[in-house]
Design brief:
By secondary structure, this protein is an alpha/beta fold. Helices cover 33% and strands 21% of the residues. It binds inosinic acid (IMP).
């Protein structure tokens, strides 16, 4: 059975947790393939609410094996804390599989993330300050430490020495910070290694064998397409590849093993952190979206920037991922408006752009061209079939589907597990 990838089509926080829950019943493996504990998935199982940052959501379902693939950056302290907290709530975590090739987030990555952001001042990216960028930078520079190094103290120590020599120079001479102590880091991390040892394995082989045996594998993206390092709104992006293509490189399976690609998008847009956001709404509308949609980050608690649905950006994202179906979330939030808007193009200096512009200048200065539709002003939470939706909500949905050129399979009309409408 081929795998399924679940990817965000905007700037993250589209509601992937809820969709994972929807799919979990038929899923044997849930795989994280990129990012780290910058992510935040909120999942409601029964009457319990969980906020997961690093452990794949599959941990919450007894029949699922959660897998952390090679493309993830792992803060071992956070991973252990998350596992401890889950165990404390009665969740069995022993099934977790952790790739030995995943890179480690080290204490100096956290410190560098903080001081680099501070140095950037008003140009800062608005990162989650979890050390993600500096950890991926070391991976690319080939001076990163990996999960498997935790199992080999001598190698760990030698690699740390090489990395720390440079990092301490940067921390002290460039940023005026105190140097970090090799021994303290070694003691702390090797202790984590002893606790993580039972989970560490060759996850690529496990997944390849699972797919060969016809087991179902869900690759759960963190962050989203417009935060993709290569195809997002660079430099205001994360340092990994959340796109469906990243599921292959980040977990060690080939493209032919992923057949179903589900893109998730909200019925409006949000983003946290800095960067271009062409359809960002006026405060009067944004405040309503924040209030009704509860738009505060799971990881940092930051208020999300809010705006209208951007069909240009979403169509771009759908194509980058070869999305086979779209799940639309939070349609109920738009019930709060008399008029709802869809951006169908951008205008830059009188020039119309029907496609996502490859130029940062255009993207930064573009003004959205909106189509306005009458709002429906009705509670949608009881809707379970398309026929239950008010005609104006259906018209919005039809137009959105037409603009993004991808079929919508489900529509979420509330936070609850069953507040879903099957669209096809
Ligand atoms: P970093 O991933 O911490 O380096 O942050 C880079 C950018 O990605 C910032 O704009 C963050 O706000 C954003 N970001 C990172 N993780 C998430 C997420 O899970 N949801 C939404 N935005 C995120």
């Amino acid at each position: 059975m081929p795998g399924t990838a679940l990817v965000g089509l905007q700037w993250g926080d589209e509601g992937k947790g809820k969709v994972t829950d929807l799919l979990a019943g038929d899923t044997d493996f849930v795989v994280r393939y990129q990012g780290g504990n910058n992510a935040g998935h909120t999942i409601v199982v029964g009457d319990q609410k969980y906020a997961l940052h690093l452990v794949p959501t599959g941990v919450l379902y007894r029949h699922c094996t959660p897998v952390i693939g090679a493309g993830v950056v792992v803060n071992p302290r956070v991973l252990l804390e998350e596992l401890d907290a889950l165990q404390g709530r009665g969740v069995e975590t022993g099934r977790l599989l952790l790739s030995g090739n995943a890179h480690l987030i080290m204490p100096y990555h956290l410190e560098l993330d903080r001081v680099q952001e501070r140095r950037l001042g008003k140009n800062r990216l608005g990162t989650t300050k979890r050390g993600i960028g500096p950890a991926y930078a070391d991976k690319a520079a080939r001076i990163g430490l990996r999960v498997q190094d935790l199992l080999e103290p001598k190698i760990f120590s030698a690699k740390l020495e090489v990395a720390l020599k440079e990092k301490n120079l940067i921390l002290t001479r460039v940023y005026g910070r105190l140097p970090m102590d090799q021994k303290a880091i070694e003691d702390e991390y090797l202790a984590y290694g002893r606790r993580l040892a039972p989970y560490i394995t060759d996850t690529a082989v496990v997944l390849q064998e699972a797919l060969d045996a016809g087991r179902s594998v869900l690759f759960e993206g963190a962050q989203a397409t417009l935060l993709d390092l290569d195809h997002g709104t660079y430099p205001f992006v994360t340092s990994s590849n959340p796109m469906a293509g990243g599921a292959c490189t980040g977990s060690g399976v080939g493209p032919r093993d992923i057949e179903r690609i589900i893109g998730i998008t909200k019925a409006y847009c949000t983003r946290v952190g800095s960067g271009p956001f062409p359809t960002e709404a006026d405060p009067s509308d944004a405040d309503v979206m924040v209030e009704v949609g509860g738009e505060y980050g799971t990881t940092t608690g930051r208020r999300r920037r809010c705006g209208w649905f951007d069909a240009i950006a979403t169509r771009y994202a759908a194509r980058l991922n070869s999305v086979t179906e779209v799940i639309l979330t939070k349609l109920d939030v738009l019930s709060a408006f008399d008029v709802v808007r869809l951006a169908v193009a951008y205008d830059f200096g009188g020039r119309r752009f029907d496609h996502f512009p490859p130029s940062q200048t255009v993207l930064n200065k573009a003004r959205p061209v909106y189509e306005e539709l009458p709002g429906w002003r009705e509670d949608l939470s009881e809707a379970r079939a398309l026929a239950d939706l008010p005609p104006r909500a259906l018209a919005f949905l039809d137009r959105l589907e037409e603009l993004i050129q991808t079929p919508v399979s489900w529509v979420s009309v509330g936070p609850g597990r069953d507040e879903m409408v099957r669209a096809r």
